[in-house]
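Hey L., structure's done. Input below.
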Amino acid sequence: MGQEQDKRFITPRSKDPSQWYTDVILQAELADYSPVRGCQVYRPYGFAIWENIKRLLNDRIIATGHENCYFPLFIPKSLLDKEAAHVEGFAPEVAWVTHGGGKLLDEPLAIRPTSEVIIGVMWAKWLQSYRDLPYLHNQWANVVRWEKATRPFLRTLEFLWQEGHTAHRTEQEARDETARMLEQYRQLACDDLAMHVLAGIKSDSEKFAGAVETWGIEALMPDGKALQSGTSHYLGQNFAKAYDIKFLDEDNTERFVWTTSWGVSHRIMGGMLMIHGDDKGLILPPLAAPIHVVIVPIVKDEDRGTVLEKCQAVASALRRVEYAGVKLGVKVDDREGLRPGFKFAYWELRGVPLRIEIGPRDIAEGVCVVADRLSGAKRKLNVDYATSALDSESVRLSLEELQAALYARSQAEVMGRIYEVGSLDEFKQVIAEGRGFALAPWDGTVQTEMMVKELTSATTRCLLPTPPGDNVKCLFSGAPAKHMAYFAASY
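Output:
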């Protein structure tokens, strides 16, 4: 087989989705393990996918009136200690710098697990009048949380994310902001990444440290586990009072601001990769794909020059085509010594949405062969090889159809794996068999939630907005139910 010798092995997704995920991350060259436990190295193809997700979300953030900025990586311990609930919640995960320049520091520095503290301190310095509000700030950064168990993208010691932070004049403005940004995250997941998610408020034990309320989006992975994919926190005045963030109101009264924070990390990329795939490898939603079309020449030695010339000309024409506001990413796989079948498998593993095949016979007929990654179905597309003109609208439509089909598949998968359970035994069975979400009435107490976790490993993922109704009993304690809650094991 010469250069085609391929020692890679991908565990079939249908057999073991968890191992399949690890295999494709490594073999599709998205990321690799670093010498530091729990940290990953982004390889170029994986980083290109992240940059696309970043662009999609950043466009949404900027369109809602927020401004990007950047705050320091290090937080003095004395500042972190001011917000007791925040410190208590993050204490086990905080990494500390105790030495610098070969000397013991006078005060340890925390490597940010999140930035409410340092941002709050700066806001207190800047803010004067109600006319300065609202503050609508966002930063793209890295953070560190000292996790015990890690997996690429899903849970790492250092991870990439955005964190938004806002300060408002009134409580209602802050609550509206919390809901508005949760909706942006839901749209990112559903509309851009083709991931159907559940959105709702988190339980008190699952909420962000220091928050009054946390709202989140929950995705469902193929193994039946939930993945928290984005959160939006209503912080009330907790951080404002801890860091003295005040403003002079219109009536000359000094008041504390109302704040929010919200974030999405590269975990959502891991969720997207895990949801969309098959035994051949990844299937990337076109909106997130760095390469939309790969062109594979079908050549023999005597035709190579002519066929490659036509492939490059078609690629140049496609690169002028826009899809969803960006120019198409197009790759011609002109590597020598590799048969077309090997190249097909190579790009299928990487999830490229469309493949175009061009050979001497196609050129003679004035066509090319197009295959989409999801169905694998092939069709012919007319090409004027004299001018390299082809039906670009058909290419755009194929990408749109693939994007929509991936979301429809994800939506059907999630909705088909929600089980409204009527007994504890049925609840246990749903969780133990990895079926998906168990929807059950819950009394709202931490004690019951902890009992369920110890019994089954499942936790509340989010709560339905409407109460369960009169005379409905908690499935676990028999006490009056306060919420209908989605439960699942989670990453």
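The CA atoms of residues 49 and 308 lie 27 Å apart. The two ends are 41 Å apart (CA to CA).

-- N.
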